[in-house]
Structures are given as C-alpha cells and as structure tokens.
Amino acid sequence: MRYLLTTITLALLFSSYSAQNCSLLADSIPDQNICVGDSVQLNALSGGGIGTTVCNNNTLQIPDGSGVNYTDTLSVSGFSGQFIGWTGNEVSLCLDLEHSYLGDLEVQITCPSGATATIFDAYTGGGGLINGGFSGAGGTFLGQPDDASIGSPGICWEYCFYNSATDPSWSTNLPTTPVTTPSTGNSVTSGHYQPEQNFSSLSGCPLDGDWVITLRDNLGVDDGYLCSWCLGLEGTSNIDVNWSPGAGLSDSTFGSPWASPDTTTTYTVTAWDPVNFCGDTLEVTVLVGSGTVPNLTITGPVTSTPWQTVSYSVPYDPSLTYVWSIDNGTIFNGQGTNSIDAQVYNDSTAEISVIAYNGCDSATNAMTLYIGTTGVLENEISYAISPNPAKENLTINFSDGIDQILLSDLSGRNILKENCGGKNRIQLNRNGLPNGVYLVHFLREGVQLGTTKIVFE
Fold it and tell me: Would you say residue 296 lies in a domain?
C-alpha cells in the first residue's frame, strides 16, 4: 500500500509540471513573396538574445579614389554575453550598394572584439585596406550607378553574404547582369553570396556591441553609395529551434534562416526552452511566383466612331497587376484591373496596350483601334473610314482582308476600282473628284460584302 501511494504522489508531481507555452517567437510572420531562384530571410524570433536583424538606412557616400576608409556602425544589444561560435554561421550581412567600378572597392566587417572578415576585396593594387585582392572585377558595376557623374547617386541593389549561401564568393565567381540606366554596363547580379573570408574568422566575438562596416574606394574617376545595410545575428542560447520542412532553408536550426524553396511552402518553426520547460510554435508561408506571365489576349472593338466609349479586357489573374494605356483617348475606369473603359478622341487610330506583371515577370500586348465612320460587312468584317467627310484622301481599315473596292456616284456610275490584295488598310485618293456623296462597295472573291457612303468636301 505504501508503494502504491508513492507512485500516485509522483504521478501527481509530474502532471503538475507539464510543458507550458512561452513567448519565444514573434507574434506572427507575414507571408513572404519571392520569385523562383530568389531568397528571403525568415525572422521568426522575438529577441531575448536568440536572434536579431539590425539595419541602418542612412545613405553613405563612398567618395572617389580617396584611399580613405569610410565606416558606418550598428550597435547590437540583448544577447547577454553570448558569443559567435567556431563556424561563424551566426552572422549574415546584406548591403544595399551601388558603384561604377568594382575594381576600386574593398569591404570589411569588424565585430565588437575587433576581429574582421573580408566581404570582398576587388582591389589588386598596393596600399589598400586589405592585402591581396581578386582580379577580373575591373569596370564591373554594382547596382545601377551614374557612371557619367561624380557625386550623383544611382540605384542600389541588394547583395547578401553568409557562409551557407549557395553562390560562392565574388573572388571565385562574378555573375553579371546588363544594365542600361542611368549608365550602360554590366553589374554584379543582385543575390546571396558567400563572403570572401569565412565568418569563422569572427569566432569568439561577443554579439553585443558595435559592428562596423568599412568601405574603401582606391582609384580615381568612379564613386558609389551604400544606401543601407543590415546585420543578422543568431545567439548561442539554450533555446532549441527547428524548422519543418527543412527543404529550401539555409539552416533549419536557426531562428532566422534564409528560405529559397522551389515552390510555395508553408514552414513551421518550433522553439523549445529546456531550462524553463516551455515552447512556442509559428507558421509562415513563402509564396513562390512562377516567374511566367501568360500571353495576353485583348478583347474589345477594332473600330469606333469619334468620342465613343469603348471597353477592353484581358483574362483575369488575381496574381497580376495591370497597367493600360491609350494614345488617342482617355481611360476613365478600370486602370490597374484586367478591364477598362475609355473614351476615344478624333478621327484617326488609337493604340491600346496593356502590361501585366506579378513581381517576377511581365507580359505586354497591344492592338489598334480604327476611329471614323464604322460598320460591319458580311462575314462579320468591321471597317472604319477616317476622316469622313474628307477634303483630300481618306483611309479605310478592315478587321479582315478585302480583295477589292469600287467607288461609284449616287446614280450607280462606277468611278474608281481599287484592288486591295487582301490588305487590312488602304488609302483612297480623291483624284480631283468634285464635292459630293459617293458610295464605296466592298468585295471579296467577286462577291459584294457591303456598301457605305463617303463625303468629299
């Protein structure tokens, strides 16, 4: 009986010490949108010395060829004496950067202990910030710089660096993308790369303190700008973190991994505190765009009278944003959607175009609207005559080809015969005809499809 009572007492003790929820993760993570092949950092942690990302959005100019170190500092706190491990995988760095000559540049990160890691060293001359340097960078751009002007900011691109990045350091491989504005050249492709010096060189450095980015431009003629930069840190606390599934993640045991799934994926992150016997869980979905926008088919009239309201549409896709334009009219309803209403202007033509994009890709299409005296012939062939009345010549546009037109006066006397050869557009010349009303007869394969009136004045 004594042993039975003891067993019951122990069971009660353990039942009263069951696992509890605790706030280890952020309240929520917004769904992330990326394109195929891109990456996004998932910041799931709420802080408390587990993980953090600190950014400075102040623009720093990298003056031309001064050979002086230019620095910016980020201050980090909240890690309570934690240190970088021997791998250095706790560190990630993103630079929003533009420069017109990569071969000038050296960039280095310094942690609070004074230890350094080379992000990249593209300068091979003597007297630089860092010894050595890789060759071949030369006149390669970063971002979209203004190469024709000193002291004029261009467009910064994001370059991220961490040990587990898929793409190697720039000293090993330097992928480029052509750019044309504001200057023409080849720019290092925006993306995620390994640093030139592994972040294990920062092992043992405290996470709390001042982190300093140092940039140096060593040669004349070219300059650049650091538009912003962000430092991501993972602590070495007793909190266990696990992401599921692990596919597409830089590290499934970090609180803020980089995610690059091939398809839309919902990740579940679980954090566990074995000391306080509590845990937390959270979900985030990474939406992966296909990168391909289907061909656009514009539906709407091909002819119109002046000042008429016309409507056009393309198939609806909720993932797309639409931008319409018309060069001889005004869009008064539907801009930004798959369907618009517009008013056309005077006798002429109007070009209706639409661009659809989803952040990864875009597609465009256009069609011509013929404005004037309109009608529909047999076989559903539409036409527009412009101008009508006309002083000299007029243009006739068709939705399908016509073989021949005949011009007669109101008595039925044929005045002109014009072979069209299946064309969709012909010009009818007045050729000295007196003012008056005339009839135009449309023929295909010898069969008259319809007749309309024109006026010369």
Answer: no
Domain range spanning residue 201? Answer: 21-288
Rounded CA gap, 49 and 412, in Å?
95
Q: What is the pTM of this model?
A: 0.56
361 and 381 together in one domain: no
Rounded Cα–Cα distance for residues 44 and 270 (Å): 10
Tens digit of each residue's pLDDT, the chain (457 residues): 333 333 333 233 333 334 466 777 767 788 888 888 888 888 776 544 456 788 999 899 888 777 888 999 999 987 777 888 778 888 999 999 999 999 989 999 999 999 999 999 999 887 888 888 888 888 899 999 988 877 788 999 999 999 989 899 999 999 999 998 899 999 999 999 999 999 999 988 989 999 999 999 888 778 899 999 999 888 755 678 899 999 999 888 887 788 999 889 999 999 887 767 888 888 999 988 766 788 889 999 988 888 889 999 999 988 788 999 998 899 999 999 999 999 998 767 889 999 998 777 888 999 988 888 778 887 778 888 888 888 888 888 887 878 888 888 888 888 888 888 888 888 888 888 899 888 888 888 888 888 888 888 8
Q: What is the CATH number of the domain that holds 55?
A: 2.60.120.260
Is the residue at 350 inside a domain?
yes
Contacts of 67 (CB under 8 A, 6+ apart): 127, 128, 216, 217, 218
Other beta carbons within 10 Å of 262: 10
Q: Does residue 297 lie in a domain region?
A: no
CATH of the domain at 358: 2.60.40.10
Q: Which two tokens stand for residue 432?
A: 């000295």
Q: How many domains does the chain have?
A: 3
Instruction: Evaluate whether residue 153 is within a structural domain.
Output: yes
Sign of CA dihedral 315, 318, 320, 326: positive
